[in-house]
Fold:
Amino acid sequence: MVAHEAEQRVRLPALRAGRLTQTFVHWSYPARTVQALLPEPLVVDEFRGTAWVGFTPFVMADVRPAPLPASLPGVPTFAETNLRTCVRRPDGREGLWFLSLEVAFPLMPAARAIGAPYHSGTLGVSGGGDTVSYAGRRRTGGASYRLVVRPGAPIGRPTRRDVWPTSRWRASTRRLGMLWETPVEHEPWPLAAATVEVLEETLTAAAGLPAPPGEPVVHFSRGVRHVRLGASRPFAPRAAPV
Structure:
């Protein structure tokens, strides 16, 4: 069962930040299609018999090393967009695997050194009337997207279908021939229903996926302010408990 609240405390974070104005767009894919993009020994995590790929644009706010306050001058706020899927380790622990991360802050692609697939680009988030618009384009390679969503009513009691794809508490990356894990902790997402007004994207194709099949499942969130990211650490594959 995926938890709506963080599964672990990040008592000594490496970074603090906020994630604001976030939209979750999730498509169902055949598990074998997504599994082909994952490194061993990760396996695709399925919900109702299929894999799910998430397209998630948002604003990364007040990003700073853990000891520094958000009010410090020069603390960056910028747009980011992730393409990700839900995975499990051999020991059964759940997490995320990022197929790509688009960022509008030039220093963030340095995180590729720890295996995160960052791409620098021109990204924007704006609100007008009762819609929220996102757009972005990579500096190299040409992958791009445009999304306009109309947030709806808050979801007072999230169901498992709401929580399962949105609330994930560790991310896996691969470097130096090993898998690494980054824990994350924040308050529960305040989720709302949402409808798509415009959706054009080539990120899925750039990641090696076929065109998204069918209509997506969409959520909107005004965001979370207290994100704590722990230091990445390698993990040794272990068998799942019997």
The CA atoms of residues 26 and 54 lie 4 Å apart. The chain is about 5% helix and 50% strand. Helices lie at 31-35, 160-166, 203-206.
